[in-house]
Specification:
14 helices, 284 residues, alpha/beta, 6-stranded mixed beta sheet
Length: 284
């Protein structure tokens, strides 16, 4: 019932705003000095079906490089990411919760990941939550970004990133470690049920291509990591990306792929690109 109501609201939102808000994950960027158009595509980082539509493949054919949130073909990415996964200033998960809750999280992680909380004690709790995402899907994990990269590789095109690994990982130092840990405790208490339901709702919304509804969904999430920290997770990063997108698109026709939640809202990438002087229109 919850999912049905959510989808109904998304469809109604698209109908009411049809004249000004179009439902699409793919947007054409032109004007403001561009000699060739670039494209903006809203991705979802993990899914059960990462197949790309014909219009996305055509846009990839018509551009000269792929730009994701990170340069995902950087051979040093994994090593650098590992160095940024630990909490600063000697903070540990054990220091953030009661002994009872730490024991519960420990038992939960042993069951779900095969690692004890003691082994992961210095990790940022959000990193551990991210390790649990595949468990929530209930299918073989697929990645939209990986599918985009396959096309770029076949076309012998470069893959670049909008931000560095350090910039992205520093986001999780700007979010309270206490809040991160409390969310991991909630996940353990519900044995993934709450998080799985929310992920399924987001996946269903993604299929509607209603970017405004997806943005609103993050603001109203029961998980404070997204609802409380919208500025840190989305808005601030969007602002940082615009001047970089301007420079990249003017140098070479580019297919930009970023998380779909970054597209919608008054501080979303589409609105910000328009304010920067670009024409941004939905590709049907």
């Amino acid at each position: 019932m919850k999912k049905a109501i959510l989808l109904l609201l998304a469809l109604l939102s698209g109908f009411v705003n049809a004249q000004t808000k179009e439902n699409s994950l793919l947007w054409k960027i032109s004007g403001n000095g561009l000699t060739k158009p670039s494209y903006l595509f809203g991705t979802i980082h993990i899914t059960c079906d990462a197949s790309l539509s014909d219009k996305v493949k055509k846009a990839m054919d018509n551009t000269e490089q792929l730009c994701l949130e990170l340069d995902m073909d950087d051979p040093n990415m994994q090593t650098e990411m590992v160095t940024k996964m630990m909490m600063k200033d000697g903070v540990t998960m054990k220091s953030l919760v009661s002994a009872e809750d730490f024991k519960m999280v420990d038992d939960f992680l042993k069951t779900q990941l095969g690692y004890s909380a003691e082994m992961l004690n210095t990790f940022k709790p959000f990193m551990i939550s991210a390790m649990l995402y595949p468990k929530m899907l209930g299918c073989e994990v697929q990645s939209v970004e990986s599918e985009l990269m396959k096309i770029s590789k076949a076309q012998n095109e470069e893959v670049i990133g909008l931000e560095t690994i350090a910039e992205q990982m520093n986001v999780f130092d700007a979010i309270s470690y206490q809040d991160q840990m409390e969310e991991l405790v909630k996940t353990a208490k519900s044995n993934l049920k709450r998080d799985t339901e929310e992920m399924n709702d987001m996946l269903a919304l993604y299929k509607t291509e209603n970017i405004e509804a997806m943005f609103e969904f993050t603001k109203k999430s029961e998980n404070v990591m997204t609802s409380k920290y919208t500025d840190v997770m989305l808005n601030n990063r969007n602002q940082n990306w615009i001047s970089r997108m301007d420079k990249i698109a003017k140098a070479k026709s580019t297919f930009f792929g970023v998380g779909a939640a970054h597209l919608g809202g008054e501080q979303g990438v589409i609105v910000l690109l328009r304010k920067a002087g670009f024409k941004v229109e939905a590709v049907k």
